[in-house]
Specification:
seven-stranded mixed beta sheet, 42% helix, binds pyridoxal-5'-phosphate, Aminotransferase_I/II_large, cysteine-S-conjugate beta-lyase activity, EC 4.4.1.13, lyase, C-S_lyase_PatB-like
Length: 406
């Protein structure tokens, strides 16, 4: 099929890997099979690896900066993959999406203003709001038949209620595609959200780190593309910040390189000023990996997407046939799968987590990490691993569930 090998069981132990080498500290079980942290268990694309080896051989690792050529590379990637046409000057480089979101909030908010998130959602969104002394508005997604949607009716009500109390609702942090539920938001859903936020004059911080990880038949819509296409958003565009990275797509998260897109000059300047006080320059390895990924990595990405999709189909079938108590949310993208475990019958989240860690011996993210109520009795599984490893994990869960009901 292709020469890329996603099936090889790489040994990541003793590499200071968070996923593998922190098992005892996190799960209290050093032998647990880890399918949690959002990185992949396979090597990055061979061309990226080769370029990094070449760079390492120079032996010179001084300070680096993103030059025009890497900006052109990003321009081309966004144009070719999403038909999004940016201006290169909108780009602000950084060492991660999480710090970038924090810098953005620090730039635009004042203490006690409110920021909306849509749980269950990536935990650092909650923390970013807290870090900036803002009030958190949780507008939970709603689930119907294991399929999640945004609740804009409830969102409108919450904005109104806060306004009534004299609290300024300043921003919404958006996850697109959505971690952990795997939704790839449709154009119609995005336009409805944009129109509501525009009307209410609320900033939109759009985390699109999973943009490239979308299953066939789905298409990621960058918010910027929708905004640029419609005259009605000409002014509102000034309130939108997008965050992107090649880190999940090409398994280079440890190289800490991301980029933020800010069209409005004043806002961009203010953001850069905030960032300058805290952030360091990018690593030469991170910049090189990003550039090589976007210039040469498309074939590898397409092969990886096929592998991920096959893993997802495998998981769905396996669980349906063997672990009927677990319901798999319909995933449209990301390599993360959201599992509804409520029918396993545990009386507390702690018991569910202990069961998975100690009886099944599989390390998954507790659902409550993504939202106390919205994530209760759920677990998140990362399927970016060889299918044999995924099968082993599912077999362990199946056995533990069977033994429990004996
Ligand atoms: C939605 C989302 N945003 C951000 C990150 C992390 O980004 P970074 O490592 O660039 O800070 C992750 C990692 O899992 C994620 O899922």
């Amino acid at each position: 099929m292709n020469s890329f090998n996603f099936s090889k069981l790489e040994n990541r132990q003793n590499t200071m890997s968070i996923k593998w080498d922190k098992r005892e500290a996190i799960f209290g079980n050093k032998d647990i099979l880890p399918l949690w942290v959002a990185d992949s268990d396979w090597q990055t694309a061979p061309l990226i690896k080769a370029e990094l080896i070449k760079r390492a051989q120079t032996g010179i690792f001084g300070y680096s900066f993103p030059n025009q050529s890497i900006k052109t590379t990003i321009y081309n990637w966004l144009k070719n993959r999403f038909d999004l046409e940016i201006e290169k000057e909108w780009l602000v480089f950084g060492t991660g999406v999480v710090p970038a979101i924090n810098f953005a909030l620090k730039t635009i908010t004042k203490a006690n203003e409110a920021v909306i998130i849509q749980p269950p959602v990536y935990r650092p969104f909650f923390e970013a709001v807290k870090n900036n002394n803002c009030q958190l508005i949780k507008n939970n997604l709603v689930k119907k038949n294991n399929y999640y949607q945004m609740d804009l009716v409830q969102l409108k009500k919450q904005i109104k209620a806060h306004k009534k109390k004299g609290i300024k609702v300043k921003a919404l942090i958006f996850c697109s595609p959505h971690n952990p539920v795997g939704r790839v938001w449709k154009k119609k859903e995005l336009l409805a959200l944009l129109r509501l936020l525009k009307k209410e004059d609320i900033y939109l911080l759009s985390d699109e780190i999973h943009a490239d990880l979308v299953y066939s038949n789905y298409q990621h819509q960058p918010l910027l593309k929708l905004l640029l296409a419609k005259a009605e958003f000409k002014e509102y565009r000034k309130k939108v910040i997008s965050f992107m990275s090649a880190s999940k797509t090409f398994n280079i998260a440890g190289l800490h390189t991301s980029y933020t897109l800010i069209e409005a000059k004043e806002l961009r300047k203010a953001y850069q000023k905030t960032k300058a006080g805290f952030a360091t320059s990018n690593s030469p390895f991170g910049l090189l990996a990003l550039k090589t990924a976007y210039n040469e990595g498309e074939k590898w990405l397409e092969a990886q997407l096929k592998y991920l999709e096959a893993n997802y189909r495998f998981l769905q079938k396996y669980i349906k046939e063997n672990i009927k108590e677990i319901k798999v949310s319909k995933a449209e993208g990301t390599y993360l799968v959201w599992l509804d475990c409520s029918q396993l019958g545990f009386t507390s989240d702690q018991k569910l987590i202990e069961f998975m860690n100690q009886k099944a011996g599989v390390g998954l993210n507790p659902g409550i990490w993504f939202g106390k109520e919205s994530g209760s009795m759920h677990l998140r599984l990362n399927l970016a691993c060889p299918q044999a490893r995924l099968k082993k994990a599912l077999t362990k869960i199946k056995k533990a569930v069977k033994n429990r009901s004996k």
